[in-house]
Design a protein that fits this description.
- The complex is a heterodimer.
- By secondary structure, chain A is an all-beta fold.
- Helix content of chain A is 0%, strand content 57%.
- In chain A, a hairpin with a 2-residue loop joins strand 6 and strand 7.
- The radius of gyration of chain A is 13 Å and the shape is globular.
- The termini of chain B are far apart.
- Classes of the chains: A mainly beta, B mainly beta.
- The interface between A and B is medium-sized, with 27 and 27 residues.
Chain lengths: 112, 112
C-alpha cells in the first residue's frame, strides 16, 4: 500500500519556465511533508518542507503548496534551471513516528 | 568530511553470502534509518532506530537485520544475500520532531 504517491515518473521543462511536481498521500495523520532532490551517485538532499498547519512555504525559487483536503502537495520551481535536473522525492511523516515515507520519485529534466 | 558516512560505497557479492553495510554519523543525531532505492519504487524504509536500545522494522525488513552499536553507528546486515536485494542502500539520520533527515552517499550493492 503506497501511502505517498508520485504519479509522474518524469517531467521535461524548458529552462526559465515553471516546473511543477506533484505528490499525493493517503494517510491523513501525516503532518510534515518534505521534498528531496537526488543527483546520480549521490544521496538525497533536503530541499524544502512544510508543516500541516501551513498551506505554502517558499524558499528562493522553490515553493511547496499543501492542500490537506485533497491530500496533495506540489513543488514549484521558478525559474527552472538546467542544474535542477535530478530526481525529486516527496516524503511524509506522522507526528510521533519519526519515520519518513517516500514517494517513488519524479525525474525532472530541464532543457537548455 | 561527510556528516553521514557509508561504507563500502560499492560492493559485489555472491548469492548466499553474509554482508554488512556500515553507517556512521558525526551529526550527533539520535535517530538513524536504512532505506533502499529501486527503480520505480522510490525509497523504502528497511529499519529505523531512535537510540541504541530501540530498533524498529520498516516497510521491507524481511531478509535484513540491523545493529545500533553506538549512537553514531548503525549497521545493516544481509544474512544470506539474494539477487533481488541488489539495490542502492542509504543511511539517514534525524533529530527532533518535524525536521529533515540527512542522507549518506549510498552503497551500491550487487548480488550475483
Amino acid at each position: 500500500d503506497q501511502q505517498v504517491k508520485q504519479n509522474s515518473p518524469s517531467l521535461s521543462v524548458q529552462e526559465g519556465r515553471i516546473s511543477i511536481l506533484n505528490c499525493d498521500y493517503t494517510n491523513s495523520m501525516f503532518d510534515y511533508f518534505l521534498w528531496y532532490k537526488k543527483y546520480p551517485a549521490e544521496g538525497p538532499t533536503f530541499l524544502i518542507s512544510i508543516s500541516s498547519i501551513k498551506d505554502k512555504n517558499e524558499d528562493g525559487r522553490f515553493t511547496v503548496f499543501l492542500n490537506k483536503s485533497a491530500k496533495h502537495l506540489s513543488l514549484h520551481i521558478v525559474p527552472s534551471q538546467p542544474g535542477d535536473s535530478a530526481v525529486y522525492f516527496c516524503a511524509a511523516s506522522e507526528y510521533g513516528t519519526y519515520k519518513y515515507i517516500f514517494g517513488t520519485g519524479t525525474r525532472l529534466k530541464v532543457l537548455a | 568530511d561527510a556528516d553521514v558516512t557509508q561504507t563500502p560505497r560499492n560492493r559485489i557479492t555472491k548469492t548466499g553470502k553474509r554482508i554488512m553495510l556500515e553507517c556512521s554519523q558525526t551529526k550527533g543525531h539520535d535517530r538513524m534509518y536504512w532505506y533502499r532505492q529501486d527503480p520505480g519504487l522510490g525509497l523504502r524504509l528497511i529499519y529505523y532506530s531512535f537510540d541504541v536500545k530501540d530498533i524498529n522494522k520498516g516497510e521491507i525488513s524481511d531478509g535484513y537485520s540491523v545493529s545500533r552499536q553506538a549512537q553514531a553507528k548503525f549497521s545493516l546486515s544481509l544474512e544470506s544475500a539474494i539477487p533481488n536485494q541488489t539495490a542502492l542502500y542509504f543511511c539517514a539520520t534525524s533529530f527532533g520532531q518535524n525536521t529533515e533527515a540527512f542522507f549518506g552517499q549510498g552503497t551500491r550493492l550487487t548480488v550475483v
